[in-house]
Specification:
13 helices, five-stranded mixed β-barrel, alpha/beta, six-stranded parallel sheet, Transcription Regulator spoIIAA, Rossmann fold, globular
Length: 454
């Protein structure tokens, strides 16, 4: 096969912000090699699936996509179908793909994305199947070329992996143990993207609060040269030209008073904290191995609200975890009412092979899970309007992110993560402007532009 015959690519991304950032790196590597992105999987010469495996139905989505590509592969035997990401860290899934899907020519995992350029070359020039999956990472991933989805914002990895071993979660097994990048490399990467026009970055990690990187040559924080997440965040906030800083995700057990203080004193750190609680029941939290109870979680919430003005707090909730009783579920509903979240991301529990929860007794019947899930959504919806109303009539900073597909209006985001829709010109996309919030619509605002210059 000649590289001249391979001209286009398509990357299909499943899963979280970490995967989205990885896909930008995969695209950057392919662009550096001269390949061009196309919108359609069928016509692309290279199709890479960047997989998620948090839930087993994510695996089924992948198989559906691969099956749909069989026809275009048979019509073009030079077509390269590759799979990477979390799912490829599962040996059984790799064996299944090799056995049942001969059209897949490249498989690699979460620990060697930096080898992608060499791996794709090997497939192209040898026309042989290439499988390379490591059980663990040997080094912290080096800085890679990227093709960003947005010119004005992007994610920045500060750490990889997770040490928490929540009983429902497969991530520590497929992403490995926590590995933190040093401050030098993070700050250098951020300065580079800011120089290219980025004004908002999101610091990414499975649990950013447990970041523990080395200072590097340019920084000195303490005698052991280890840096905490609040210390890192404070340094990032000093970067000239960086208008907004977000981070994802925080684990409640590690969110410190120091972090709250750093957010409070730096105006360019967004007033939004995503703090997954998963359940309002102490019994379920213990079974989930979350390392906090309801009382401890609520104390953190109180500290956040008492110290950070206009803060938006969002969370994740799992309904139907093994052993969840009606009382446990009612505890979750009461927690939602007590906290009054700005947004809640809700999930029905489903067994994930390889986790401790999948082996637990007292699995909740599916019909009970679905009935509780409906009740949960009703409580979430009833709560959603409460926090929004207090902002109506105020003029606030909005980063214009694009156009709403339904209304055709511009859409942007407040510092506290609420969406705003308003009339305006496309030239405003990528800028921070003043918008007066004129109407609340439960999950978003309608507004009017006050000033186009910030």
């Amino acid at each position: 096969m000649s590289i001249k015959e391979i001209k286009t690519y398509k990357i299909v991304t499943f899963g979280c912000q970490m995967n989205a950032r990885d896909s930008e790196k995969l695209a950057g590597i392919l662009e550096d090699k001269g390949f061009s992105e196309v919108a359609d999987e069928d016509t692309a010469d290279i199709v890479i699936f960047n997989t998620c495996t948090v839930r087993e139905n994510a695996n089924q989505k992948l198989y559906g996509h691969i099956g749909q590509l069989k026809k275009s592969y048979l019509e073009n035997k030079n077509k390269i179908i590759g799979i990477c990401g979390c799912m490829m860290q599962e040996k059984d899934e790799v064996e299944k793909i090799v056995e049942k899907y001969p059209q897949v020519k490249l498989i690699f995992g979460t620990h060697n994305i930096d080898e992608f350029g060499d791996l794709i070359d090997e497939v192209i020039y040898t026309n042989k199947k290439v499988i390379k999956v490591y059980d663990e990472a040997e080094n912290i991933e080096k800085t890679l070329p990227t093709k960003r989805v947005f010119d004005f914002k992007c994610g920045i990895n500060i750490m990889f992996g997770c040490n928490n071993f929540c009983t429902y979660c497969i991530v520590p097994y497929v992403r490995g143990r926590e590995r933190s990048r040093d401050v030098d490399s993070i700050v250098s990467e951020i300065k580079k993207v800011v120089a290219e026009g980025v004004i908002e970055i999101m610091l990414l990690g499975q649990n950013v609060n447990s970041y523990s990187g080395k200072a590097g040559d340019s920084y000195k924080f303490n005698d052991n040269n280890k840096v905490t997440f609040p210390e890192l965040l404070n340094e990032v906030a000093k970067i000239d030209g960086l208008k907004r800083i977000r981070f994802m995700t925080s684990h409640p057990k590690d969110l410190s008073d120091e972090l709250i203080e750093v957010i409070k004193k730096n105006s360019n750190i967004c007033r939004h904290i995503h703090l997954p609680v998963q359940s309002g029941s102490d019994e379920i939290l213990k079974a989930m191995n979350r390392h906090y109870d309801r009382s401890a979680y609520l104390k953190v919430i109180d500290k956040i609200r008492n110290n950070i003005e206009d803060v938006g707090i969002t969370t994740d909730i799992i309904v139907g975890f093994p052993g969840e009783t009606e009382k446990d579920f009612e505890d979750t509903l009461s927690l939602i009412n007590q906290v009054s979240y700005d947004a809640v991301f809700t999930f029905e529990y489903s067994k994930r092979t390889g986790t401790k929860a999948a082996e637990m007794e007292n699995q909740v019947p599916e019909n009970v899970v679905k009935e509780r899930f409906k009740r949960l959504l009703k409580v979430v919806e009833d709560n959603s309007g409460r926090n929004v109303e207090k902002y109506v009539g105020r003029t606030m900073d909005v980063l214009v992110e694009g156009e709403d597909k339904v209304s055709g209006k511009l859409t942007g985001r407040l510092s506290n993560n609420y969406l705003v829709h308003f009339n305006g010109d496309k030239e405003l996309i990528g800028r921070i402007i003043d918008v007066k919030l004129t109407k609340s619509c439960k999950f978003y605002f309608e507004g009017e532009i006050v000033s186009k210059w910030k």
